[in-house]
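Service request form, structural biology core

Requester: graduate student, group of Dr. S.
Request type: structure prediction, single chain
Budget code: on file
Notes: please return the result as structure tokens.

Sequence provided:
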Amino acid sequence: MALTLTTEPRFDLKVVADLVAPGSRVLDVGCGDGALLELLARDRGVDGRGIELSQQGVNECVARGLAVIQGDADTDLVDYPADSFDYVVLSQTLQATREPHRVLTHLLRIGRRAIVSFPNFGHWRVRMSLLTGGRMPVTSQLPQTWYETPNIHFCTIRDFVDLTDALDATVERAVALRRNGEAIPFNMPWGFWNLFGEQAVFLLRR
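Core staff response, request fulfilled:
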């Protein structure tokens, strides 16, 4: 059955899809409503699977005809064998995990490559909000108030690069995105990305 996207995908999902080779086996961890899996199936012809914590998300994925099970990235990735997927994707979910270090280790074990996207807590708007208002920021990438957010481990682009170094992971490609989805040039230093990128997407391998 052909899959049809019902809404315009997020900017970072388009970037993620472009990083995936056509016909690959993909596991989407924290797949939400299945928008990325649907995009990958339509545009890249992937064999996609998903794992999602919320029952509502699983129901929405199943309604789209996607192969998704309910599960927790913090506890259930250990059950997947090594090299069982070409790509494992963690999109806008790393900051909501209890043990990001352990989760990323499993991503790199399960997939030949891992793709991770996350909101950048080092963006200048976040810094300005803390500096001038003295309150936790609310932005387009961090829309919930501090007491409603599912995010428990905020990080900056520089923090994430440090984590990849600690895991001895290789960054094959990386993209930082402005608010309008425009990519910041790759030849800019990490500090520039950290200041002006609202979100980032990394393609990693062991």
